[in-house]
Amino acid sequence: MSLVTGCSPDLQSAEPPASQPKPAKAAETPEKKPRRPNLRLGDDEHKLGTETRTLMAVGPQTVPGGTKRALVGYASTDETPPETRLIVETLGPSPVEILLDQRIEARRDTWHDVAFDVPSDAHTLRIGVTPPQAIRSVSISRPAWLGDASARNLILISIDTLRADYLNTYGYDRHATSPAIDLLADRGTLFEAVIAPSPWTVPSHMALFTGLDPNILGMDEFANFTPRLDRGFTTLAELFQQAGYLTVAFTGTMTMTSTNGFSDGFYLYHEHRVRKRIHRDLESNLEATDRWLRKHPEKPFFLLFHTFEAHDPYFHDEFVEPGMGAVEKQKAKYASGIAYVDERIGTFLETLEERGLLENTLIVITSDHGEGFEDDHFAFHGRTLFEDVLRVPLIFVGPDIPKGLRIPFQVPLQDVFATLIEYFGLELPPSIQSRSLLSLVRGEENAPRETYLCCMAHHFQREGWRDQRYKFVRSWRKQGLSEALFDLETDPGERINRVSELPEIAERLRQATTERTVANKLRAESNEPSAPVDENYLEQLEALGYIQ
Fold first, then answer.
1. What's the DSSP call for residue 150?
2. Closest CA to 195 of 450, 400, 20
């Protein structure tokens, strides 16, 4: 951050030459031109058409007079001085022009959006507050273009730690866990075998948001580093932002923090406030989302909604019965949390539909990973590549999406990236591993897609390959290297290692694993290293059970 001062050259004084006497002091001080206010910047300068991470260069809405409409937001605290003002100004090559000068309301936990016009010849915007010391109590967003209001919207819902086989529409029959999601599945297209690339939140979500494997992104380990997405990668939010969408996110924070780079490309990134351990976030985030949508019903938006409500530690016990054993009780509490999330999100979407907000909106429901229990190899998630932690739901509902269609073929979770790019007519970045799923939806493709797996976290290092029937896993531990091959058709519980029994299949999947790992390593070598570990971040991971 820096201070911006406005002092014209004609107001600067110069020391006369030593050989000449100094002029006598004037009896009256001449009137000076008014200075522009001192500003404290909330971010870097925002260059139009070049800084795609700040202002969008594609698809802004043009209004009469050749100007473009933009939006900037802010949040303040109760301690914000009453005279604090938000100022937006242009910088070079034209003379400085103030586009916005508005008093900031001092009110905690309230987000304000302010629209303003940007001249077509503007080169750079500078946004800040005055007086400068007020920046300590004001948060300013990066600006965003206001795009075509007739464009379709996107609501992407990620229910953290949701394994597919605990939803009724995916075959779960012990309790009614998902009536709302089941209804959405009937109204849209469901993918039956979606495989997450990693068994924990950060790498799996980053793969979803970039269309790349986690070990390319540097998102697959945290033993000595805090994961931070390299600025060279393009996120889904950035692509939508460039296309004129308001990009907003409401998350459960923790590992979904802006510190990791998840906020890249988002105009507004709302993180649920927690301290050290995970809290229930669903209700507060739904309320915040609803408030925002009430203000922006007419604009195209990409809204990410993420919740940790179903994540351990489990808060809900609707399905818990007396006399249950420890493992059965954990399963019942886990299922209870899913049912609670389903009911609340279902009600929320019904409300939006009643307002007419879903008529032109694509809804996507998915997750980053599942959950294991003690009778399924390993309790919780993060350290294994078994099906219970990798198989996640995926449902699309919206315009031009077939109703009641179920796709049986295996697909990687990161293929959602290219699917959304094609559906919304955006430009796919180069060298993306993601492939659109719309060819499967249209019936143009009828084959499973093989999936690369990687888990280099939690002091374990594993990688593998999965086709429609077989899964190969290679693990490195202190005891050395081990390999496993599972026939998922005859051994869905992954109890029998068939590496020796099926050597040709094992070798094919081993070779595919090695080739992808080497290619990803070569591509990742040019990325910047992650930032040093943050102690607060490690405390949060420990509270989630990721490290001990």
1. T
2. 450
